Amino acid sequence: MTRHPLAFVILGAALSAAAGLLMLRMFGDGAVGTGWALDATARVSFAFWLLTFIARPLNAVSRSDFSKALVAWRRQFGIAFASAHIVHAWFIVQIAALVPADFPPARFVPGGIVYLVILMMFATSFNRTAKAMPGRSWQYLHRSGQWLIALVFLNSSLQGIFNPDHNRLTHVVLAALILAGVGLRAYVWQRQRNRRQAA
Ligand code: HEM
User: Fold this and answer.
1) pLDDT at site 2
2) Residue 82: CB partners within 8 Å, gap ≥ 6?
3) 126 CA distance to ligand 1 centroid (A)?
4) How distant, in Å, are the alpha carbons of 6, 13, 137 from that of 1?
5) Which residue has the least CA distance to atom 9 on ligand 1?
6) Which of 80, 106, 126, 133 has its CA 20 to 30 A from that of 145?
7) R_g (Cα) of the chain, nearest Å
8) Which among 34, 39, 87, 165 is the best mutation to test ligand 1's pocket, defined by most ligand atoms within 8 Å of the CB?
9) Which domain holds residue 15?
């Protein structure tokens, strides 16, 4: 299978668009269907993101063929995550046009900042652009960006658990997946720290 980044730009966007359009078909293209399309596109991008979040720590504990493959394909999954999330932005524009009263400009500020970070990570996920980043700035951007995205996903899954209009079980599963990823990263970090101190 090709590892060409463009293939993953297309894959992420195509899966996300297909999930969103399926929701519009099932629930209509009004605010309700568009809300579902937002959830569906966010879930597609979440799946790609989770793979990038757990790849390195999982490989540190298991060294299996699967975890090695995840590490090798991590950048491609990150590209697919970002392009799937650009489709999420398309549905944000749609819902803001359908129910403008629910989307005052202030509502776009926190998410807009996260989008900016996602776009910067996306733009620097290609060989040429990654190499152009000075010093350790690539690592700083991508590590802090990963944690910021983790927080946003965790926040929306926790909100879903406590929102009676949402499916609680789905959000419990989503939150559990994120917390498992966070726990795995913390465990690997602590283990590496202990080893460094013992050496
Ligand atoms: C200006 C930026 C953003 C706006 C206005 C926005 C808006 C929305 C809306 C209206 C929904 C549907 C909520 C519902 O079903 O009640 C949604 C769903 C979602 N969004 Fe965004 N979003 C933004 C950015 C982001 C970003 C940056 C992320 C993650 C990195 C994200 C992750 C999600 C997730 C995970 C869901 C599904 C929530 C659920 O499962 O209930 N969104 N978004």
Assistant:
1) 78
2) 12, 45, 118, 119, 121, 122, 125
3) 26
4) 13, 18, 31
5) 38
6) 106
7) 18
8) 39
9) 5-198
Number of domains into which the chain is organized: 1
Q: Which among 95, 152, 70 has a CA at the least distance from the CA of 118?
A: 152
Half-sphere exposure of 145 (CA within 13 A, CB side): 24
Kindly list the protein residues whose Cβ atom lies closer than 6 A to any atom of ligand 1: 35, 38-39, 42, 46, 88, 92, 95, 107-108, 111-112, 114-115, 149, 152-153, 156, 160, 166
From first to last of its 199 residues, the chain has per-residue pLDDT tens of 778 889 999 999 999 999 999 999 999 999 999 999 999 999 999 999 999 999 999 999 998 999 999 999 999 999 999 999 999 999 999 999 999 999 999 999 999 999 999 999 999 999 999 999 999 999 999 999 999 999 999 999 999 999 998 999 999 999 999 999 999 999 999 999 999 999 7
Q: Which two tokens stand for residue 61?
A: 């504990």
Ligand 1 centre to CA of 75 (Å) is 23
Tokens describing residue 74: 């991590």
